[in-house]
TrEMBL record:
Source organism of the structure: Kocuria aegyptia
Keyword Isomerase: yes
One Pfam family in the UniProt entry: MDMPI_N
Keyword list, A-Z: Isomerase
Positions of the Mycothiol-dependent maleylpyruvate isomerase metal-binding domain: 11-95
Name under which the protein is recorded: Maleylpyruvate isomerase family mycothiol-dependent enzyme
Lineage top rank: taxon: Bacteria
Membrane-spanning ranges: none
A GO term, aspect molecular function: isomerase activity
Keyword Isomerase: yes
Length: 215
């Protein structure tokens, strides 16, 4: 996907997430997501923080997180998630079309963010939102190319990942096959779509398998 296609997808997917958020009950806004310790409101606020997050925000978050990036992101999301839910949804509408993204990130990062976090929200709520396969492939290429924060190549060492709906393949070893959506969730450390994957390498990517094989 080129830069224009990526941003077009980001905007469509953010709009779709905003549509979903508008249907939620108060209890659903506080429902746990696939991100441990994060409620729906936290993830939703985090996603739309991307076009609002500047250098000063980054410095403040890192200071509050005592230099721990993951903790900094979590604390920032919790703070933003305390806003009224109407304001969170309004931010999606207000920032529709924005191409701003946090310092130190590239154009593929907002795409990865919206694709995966939409599933983080939707799946635990029993909602369905199909991930665009071509966009998921672009996001997967980004995840596979970097070590932090997902460490996908290390975690999934010893298996071959093969998409069944687009042309994408990575790794070496026994095969794990499935849709690009299911593979992207696996690449980013989610286990919620393991039942949508198959192949002789599947047992090697289940939780606890790494310790069993000494990785």
């Amino acid at each position: 996907m080129d830069r224009t296609a990526i941003w077009d997808t980001v905007h469509r997917e953010r709009s779709a997430l905003a549509d979903l958020l508008e249907t939620l009950t108060p209890a659903e806004w506080d429902h746990p997501t696939l991100c441990p310790g994060w409620a729906v409101r936290d993830v939703a606020a985090h996603v739309i923080s991307s076009p609002q997050f500047g250098l000063a925000d980054l410095a403040r978050a890192l200071w509050q997180g005592r230099g721990d990036y993951n903790r900094a992101v979590f604390l920032d999301a919790r703070k933003r998630g305390r806003k009224p839910v109407e304001q969170i949804v309004a931010d999606y509408r207000r920032l529709d079309g924005s191409r701003r993204h946090p310092p130190g990130t590239g154009v593929r990062d907002p795409l990865l963010d919206i694709l995966v976090h939409t599933q983080d929200i939707a799946l635990p709520l029993g909602r369905h939102h199909a991930m665009p396969p071509e966009a998921a492939r672009t996001a997967a290429e980004r995840v596979w190319s970097i070590s932090f924060p997902f460490r996908a190549r290390r975690r999934l060492r010893g298996v071959t990942l093969t998409a069944t709906d687009v042309d994408w393949r990575a790794g070496s070893g026994p095969e794990v096959r499935g849709t690009m959506e299911a593979l992207l969730l696996l690449l980013t450390g989610r286990t919620a779509a393991l039942d949508r994957l198959e192949g002789p390498g599947l047992d090697l990517v289940r939780p606890g398998a790494g310790a069993a094989r000494g990785s």
